[in-house]
Amino acid sequence: MAISSFVLWALRWSEFDLAVLLGSGDRFVEFFSRLVPPDWSVSKLVFRSTIETLMIAIAGTAVAVVFSLPLGFLAASNVSPPWISHPVKWLLGFIRSIPLIVVAMLFVAAVGLGPFPGMLAIAFHSVGMLGKFYAEEFETAEKGILDAVSGTGATWSQTLRYGLWPQSIPQVVAFTVYRLEMNFRDAAVLGLVGAGGVGYYILLYVRGFQYEKVAVLLAVIIGVVLMLDNLTFWVRRWVR
Predict the structure, then answer these.
(1) What is the distance between the alpha carbons of residues 78 and 137, in angstroms, rounded to a whole number?
(2) CATH class of the region 40-239
(3) What is the pLDDT of residues 197-237, one digit of tens each?
(4) Distance between CA 202 and CA 204 in Å, rounded?
(5) Distance between CA atoms of 138 and 141, rounded to whole angstroms?
(6) Are 46 and 104 in contact (CB under 8 A)?
(7) What's the half-sphere exposure (Cβ side, CA atoms, 13 Å) at 36?
(8) What are the residue ranges spanned by the domains of the chain?
(9) Cα–chain-centroid distance for residue 2?
(10) What confidence tens digit (pLDDT) does each residue in 102-145 have?
(11) Measured between alpha carbons, how far is residue 46 from residues 57, 59, 154, 175, 200 in Å?
(12) What is the pTM of this model?
């Protein structure tokens, strides 16, 4: 009952109005009618900017993994003592709390326009989420296996390598690929603040009321997201 009341209060606070939504059908039709027919003359530009966006997402995710794995180990309560795990979890929470667009604007101001600040923003923001995912996965490892490995005289690092890591690697890989999919969608938006990728051209064409070109950008973005979604599915099957 309390949850339902809270949800209803949130809807009211958000000024949710079903009548207004149902009555806006004509505006939706008008907007989507501007997208057809798509202007495929920008295909080469769209392809290049989409590849740039994908590279931003891949590079940012890779850099994030390098930092997230050790932070995930340090944040896991079954691996690190509380005086280490709690501050690291607070740090990861702080990183997640900063909106991605703000991080991108900061890096654009620091290193200039282009894909580099976009990659840095993706990497920074992903560390907060991947570090949390990794830590939670490490904390679900079976304690009996860890105790058995440790009981053989293994050091702390050997216990992690032979006891914790084999249990966690399937989900770690799955989380990483899922984050890559999210990072591509996020990277597509970062161009709005000058951080490279397709977002810049979406903003450019929308401001010029060239919606038929926006349609091509949206079609390519949807296609890449669907491919990444299939990649996530196959990776999950492969690691299990």
Answers:
(1) 11
(2) mainly alpha
(3) 777 788 788 888 888 888 888 888 888 888 877 877 777 67
(4) 5
(5) 6
(6) no
(7) 4
(8) 40-239
(9) 31
(10) 888 888 888 887 888 889 999 999 999 999 999 998 888 777 77
(11) 16, 20, 53, 29, 11
(12) 0.82
